[in-house]
Amino acid sequence: MHTSPDAGVELRLLQALIAVADEASVSAAAERLRIAQPSLSRQLRLLEQRLGLPLFERAGRRLQVTRAAEPVVAAARQALDAADDVLRVAQQAAQGQVGRLAIAVLPGCSPVQLVGALARFRRQHPLVAVSITELVDEDQWRALREGAVDVALNLIEPAPGDLHHQVLSAEQVCVVVQEDHPLAGKESVRFADLAGEPLTFFNRSDQPVGYLWLADQLRAAGVRTVVQEATLTNIVATVAAGLAVSVMLQSFQTILQPPGVRFVPLEDCAIDLILTCRRGPVSVAVDAFRREF
Asked: In whole angstroms, how far apart are CA 72 and each of 30, 35, 48, 88, 144?
């Protein structure tokens, strides 16, 4: 028998091989596969031609796999199992059950909405590999364009026009003070009330857009102060010790629940929480994640 070196073996031929091996009969195998017996016989001859060896021999009224073909049958079973795995994974991927979801957030600033959205997403899509990376705004846009991340969550500044963004909510901004601070007992405050107060805020390198926004707000209110840059942990510790005040989203109170600290709303002050992704079609996982907000 001659076998072409580039001859492929279709799954239907492997299914025919397994059916005949299991049933020990062409007629029974044809009934199992719901095809005509002559058609099944032709498939077996074609498979023998492509493989270059006889597959079955007579043993009385039954067919049995030749000794040479026994490892072929075993390999065919593995191939069909692998094909079933491919179909199952494809179906899961089409439903957003497998794949990846790479999320970018601002350094030290995961929004509280992410906690609930991600928990709901994980319950519905437990096999999706989820990662969270901290990136400043410009690095978020670059990572989205390059496909390194799938969605980004940032504040204040929407993405450039080549990316798609949606505003998820308007976040209340608060002044954060020690619980014994004179402003702690107020229902709300204005930026002008921060005059003369030492102020601590996120590092400019971590929150460039937020840092500029705060500087603009202070300038507009006529407040001149030196801003001490710090990490989130040190900001809270500095405020709790009464060494400075800070400005944060109200939702940080829910996340941090810091003792000895009070969040006082700033009047008429809210900033946008924005979700950004690439334009055009997105994966089912990304689409499902966006719906959780």
From this structure: 20, 23, 11, 24, 47
Q: What is the pLDDT of residues 146-174, one digit of tens each?
A: 999 999 999 999 999 999 999 999 999 99
Contact 247, 173 (CB under 8 A): yes
Residue 183 is given by DSSP the state G
- How far apart CA 95 and CA 119 sit, in angstroms, is 18
List of residues 6+ apart from 189 with CB closer than 8 A: 175, 183, 264, 265, 266, 267
Closest CA to 233 of 269, 203, 271: 203
Q: What dihedral do alpha carbons 113, 205, 211, 292 form, nearest 10°?
A: -10
**pTM more than 0.90:** no
Half-sphere exposure for 264 (CA within 13 Å, toward CB)? 24
244: three-class secondary structure by DSSP: coil
Does residue 36 register a pLDDT over 80?
yes
- Residue found under tokens 């978020």: 140
Place of tokens 């994640």: 289
Q: Kind and range of the H or E element at 37?
A: helix 37-51
Contacts of residue 90, Cβ cutoff 8 Å, sequence gap at least 6:
none
DSSP secondary structure letter of residue 256: H
